[in-house]
Design goal:
Elements: E1 10-14, H1 20-30, H2 37-45, E2 49-55, E3 58-68, E4 71-79, H3 88-102, E5 107-112, H4 117-125, E6 129-140, E7 143-153
Parallel strand pairs: 4-5
Antiparallel strand pairs: 1-2, 2-3, 3-4, 5-7, 6-7
């Protein structure tokens, strides 16, 4: 009988410039039409909430959140394909929502490909609801793909 591998500690921290090569590598291995290194760099420079989930010594996932005018937009949330199904997406999303609450955000928005069933499941599990559809939003192999627009109203204890 093979025993399971020991649990490797993981923590979330702010993304730094030195993380960009690893983050970009995960992005390229995760998507057919990935963000470039420069897009991640620009997000850091713009002051967006950029986070990484570090498992042991390796970056296993990341998220990018833009906050303005009382609302927030999740621009990117990704877990390295090697580390999926370990609850890291849930942890990253929870951290992003916590940071949105800290910024007194009332509503959080995001777009997701309707074909990304694992992302749809994660967002619904965390209380997001679909509010719209953006036609031809994403680049695709055969033209463009729509985006499902999701939103979540954040609750605060008064």
């Amino acid at each position: 009988m093979i025993s399971p591998a020991p649990q490797v500690p993981a923590h979330i921290r702010s993304m730094i410039h030195d993380d960009l090569p690893l983050v970009s590598d995960i992005e390229r291995r995760s998507y057919e039409f990935p963000w470039s290194h420069d897009v991640f760099r620009d997000c850091l420079l713009a002051g967006y909430q950029c986070i990484v989930l570090v498992r042991g010594e390796e970056i296993a996932g990341y998220g990018v959140l833009s906050v303005a005018a009382g609302e927030a937009h999740i621009l990117n949330l990704c877990v390295d394909p090697v580390y999926r199904e370990l609850g890291y997406g849930d942890r990253l999303l929870s951290e992003i929502l916590g940071r949105a609450r800290t910024a007194d955000v009332k509503e959080v928005f995001l777009e997701v490909r309707p074909t990304n069933s694992s992302a749809l499941s994660l967002y619904r599990k965390q209380g997001f609801r679909q509010i719209a559809n953006r036609p031809a939003y994403y680049q695709a192999n055969a033209g463009r793909e729509d985006a499902a627009v999701f939103a979540k109203t954040l609750k605060y204890n008064d």
